[in-house]
Amino acid sequence: MSSCRGFGHLRPWVLLVAFTLLQCGSAQFCSFWNNGCIDPLAQTAVAFSFPPLFLDPITLFYSFDSSSSGKGEGPMTKTAFWLGYLDHNINPQVVDTNRTSEIALRVGNLTGTPTGPNNGCDGIWGGRCSHDIKTSLQATMFQLATSGDYYNQPLATALDQFMMTPPVLPSCGAPVFDVAAIPVQDFAYEQAPSQEVTVMKPGSSHHPWQVWYLDRMTDVQQASQVAVGIVSRSPSFDSHPPLSPDDIQIELVCLQAPKAHPQDPVLLRTTIEIDLVGPFFLDRPSVFFSSSRLDCRCRWL
Ligand SMILES: *[C@@H]1O[C@H](CO)[C@@H](O)[C@H](O)[C@H]1NC(C)=O
Ligand SMILES: *[C@@H]1O[C@H](CO)[C@@H](O)[C@H](O)[C@H]1NC(C)=O
Description:
Elements: H1 12-21, E1 22-25, E2 42-48, E3 58-67, E4 76-84, E5 99-106, H2 122-125, H3 127-147, H4 154-164, E6 184-191, E7 196-199, E8 210-215, H5 219-224, E9 227-235, E10 249-255, E11 297-300
Antiparallel strand pairs: 1-11, 2-3, 3-4, 4-8, 5-6, 5-9, 6-7, 9-10
The protein binds 2-acetamido-2-deoxy-beta-D-glucopyranose (2 copies).
């Protein structure tokens, strides 16, 4: 443990809990080219609320690894995300039609520091841009749900459209959907009238939900990027069509690799997986860790 540093800024009770419940053991290696797991160079977790279906906050995990040589033609990074939640604390009473919940993550061509409302996104592009993004997604997904055209994942379908034909977002300075790929994962299905909810098993670095590679991106560059999570809950194809775009729920979550100090942007092998959301913790934490030079492997027991 003597090689673990960077905990100094955490409140003592967090430290106590962390050291009581974490075990530093031998690292399990996941190679850079294995897209079924990730051995993170940096990882951040942010909790956000997703009522009314999820009664407890959900945690978005964003993680990346890097290779300086890539495929032999320059650096590459490997990015992964997944959600953590208490899958028994879901509210079936709100299920009144068939709905699908999805999460997308976009990384690239966007820098800044997450702060403020909309889970940090307003600090990146301003509150009006967050509003524009949400309303344009709602309008597109509403149109899809009322068109009669078949679709499987409503958010993924809308994002595909946005990547082909960028939406007009008058309050956003830079193009928001100007990235090569926006991986999407569906994670909750609601069924009416039975009020059954099927949720994806929470992920981990051993079982990330989506993994993809960014060509010509270095670890330093990716650490300065803002990752934007887009979370939706929208009528499934076989449901009653929504009455208004407001029936489509969209949340934005902006996050970044943890930084110990602004002048110290690169993290060495920092793997922290702590879900502080749960029965022990009443506060909703945001970024849990900003530590660097942490070279032991810590896991929940
Ligand atoms: C950034 O934008 C450029 C130009 O549209 C695009 O070619 C590139 O793939 C984008 N970067 C990422 C990481 O998606
Ligand atoms: C919802 O899904 C169930 C099961 O797939 C199906 O039987 C039902 O007709 C669907 N429609 C509505 C409106 O909920």
